[in-house]
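> run fold 19286_t:CDS:1
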Amino acid sequence: MFIIDELWILFSKAVNEGRNTQDIIKIIKHYLKNISNEPRMIIKLISNNDNFISDQILLAFLHLIEFEISEEDGEKAFKLFSVAAENNNIIAQYFLGECYYYGYGTTRNQELAINWYLKAGVAIGD
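> ok
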């Protein structure tokens, strides 16, 4: 579980610093490359232990990374972010907005993206 804990710390730090989704993807991929792990392996580890909301969000984000390879992963990310967002998790609300904005695992919908960004407390500019 050490890798998962490190990933969560790295992920949450990047989120708290206000990094955009693409930057966070690069940070996580770089970390995984340095420890010689693929997102698939970590997905399997977390899937067996997704008792905590942080595990579910990290699992969703890893599926988002794998979305570049498989549409199914985008759909899984969208579903996991949706559940956590509906349970008022601010990080999940932001990334659900990203899913709607970019069409990760769902149809692009800027109106829904903005609604989720606002629920997450993200300032929307003109």
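The chain has seven helices and no strands.
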